[in-house]
Amino acid sequence: MWPKANHADYPRDASLIARLTAGGISSRRLAPAEHRHWEFAWRRTYQPTFARRGSLRHRAAAFARRGNFLQGAKAVNMYLSESATRWMLIPFLSSVAGTSVHVIGPTVSAFECKGPLLELGDFNNVEFFVSPPDLSWTFLSTHEDFALGGPYFARAAEIPRA
Predict the structure, then answer these.
(1) How many CB atoms lie within 10 A of CB 18?
(2) pLDDT in tens, 84-132
């Protein structure tokens, strides 16, 4: 399972770092163990919602009416309206059941970021999530954003478990 090297540069790291820097964001590349830690923490919190894909479409409509689970442009707008100044950008290490996240290989490293949230649509072929360190909310971007699913926004406290 990638990432394997502590300081490996992946193909899109330079463009992501340039985008973050241009947006006034300071960033730190995460070590492989930190990367895995954050993805596993995300999966414990959010995976059950996405894994229930059979009922996700029906539930998503009800949640969207309450603002709990958003897709598409509404998800992007909610994400950009968050006031987080410390956040994690974590590429997925493996696919996420119930979504179009299908990881083929590494293209970008995981980063801890400090500064305002950025619109990251120019990284539309990278499967990743953005969350604050407390994982109170998440923004999930997939290679199918605005086509077959995604992006998604959800709050941990509002995710139904049944």
Answers:
(1) 10
(2) 999 999 999 887 776 667 777 778 899 999 999 998 877 777 888 999 9
Specify whether the CB–CB gap between 110 and 88 falls below 8 A.
Answer: yes
Please list the alpha-helical segments (H only) found in the chain. 13-22, 32-51, 53-66, 72-81
CB-CB contact of 129 with 141 (8 Å): yes
CA–CA separation, 99 vs 79, rounded Å?
Answer: 18
Whole-number Å distance between alpha carbons of 42 and 79: 16
- Give the C-alpha separation, 54 to 86, whole Å: 34
Sketch the domain layout of the chain as residue ranges: 31-158
* pLDDT one-digit tens code per residue, 47-57: 877 665 444 45
Alpha-carbon radius of gyration of the chain: 15
Give phi and psi for 97, each to the nearest 5.
-55, 140
**Separation between Cα atoms, residue 34 and residue 40, nearest integer Å:** 10
Taking CA atoms, 40 is separated from 12, 47, 70, 101, 110, in Å, by 23, 10, 22, 15, 13
